[in-house]
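--- STAGE predict ---
source: upstream dedup step, 1 unique chain passed
mode: sequence only
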Amino acid sequence: MALMTQENPHTSLPFMKMHGLGNDFVVIDSRKRTHELSPKLVTAIGDRHRGVGFDQLAEITLRDGVPHLTFYNSDGSTSAACGNATRCIARYLMDETGARDLTLTTDRGTLPTRDAGNGLVSVNMGHPQLRWDDVPLAQDIDTLELPIDGAPSATGMGNPHCTFFVDDADAVDLETRGADIEHHPLYPQRTNVQFASVIGENHLRMRVWERGVGPTLASGSSSCATAVAAARRGLTGRSVKIDLDGGTLWIDWKDDGVWMTGGTAYVFDGAFTAAWLEANQ
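--- STAGE serialize ---
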């Protein structure tokens, strides 16, 4: 999609703003035009007062002719996986090409996506990582119940997760608990943190603290990790509905991987000015 601002000589680096259930993203399409995304620049873009603001930034490039996605957190760090951003970009590329399914690559691996109908998009986030050294954890321990108060489960989905099952997810002090657990010494790469409650048959309520970001309205990889942990603990089956602060996702842990389905939104286009970019390189 052409941007009205691209012909303005005072602007540079076009971007798109998207979200999945309020989990919001700045997306930069670098398939034809590249720009160095330094940690300083990513952090500046992520500033909701002086930049644009996002939960994650995603860059689209091409590797061997296949769209490749690279994800950045708002603190400038990188993440191998971001399920909601993957679904949003899949919708963008499907609309561009007319395809109803396509394959994307990420540092997590190759991710099949498809149009699920009714405005929904599905992505296969791959098989969960359940061994301690794949999550990764700092020591060889059982990932089903960690020796942390509350006995959370550890799951890798291309990024590390720590899932607590509680009576009432809404009663948890997410700001305090999330920040504390993100930096727990069992997680050498830090971790995403989820607090989930069973509210019905195969139905969970979940709140999220994202590594390098903080509280978010939704998280795709966190939802996948929570669904896997709930099934492993016998709390649910392998196909669940998860209600997050921003809306609902459907997770199905199948033999070929963990499928996630939900809505997406392409909100607006913009472009960063050359002067702003120069000041924030």
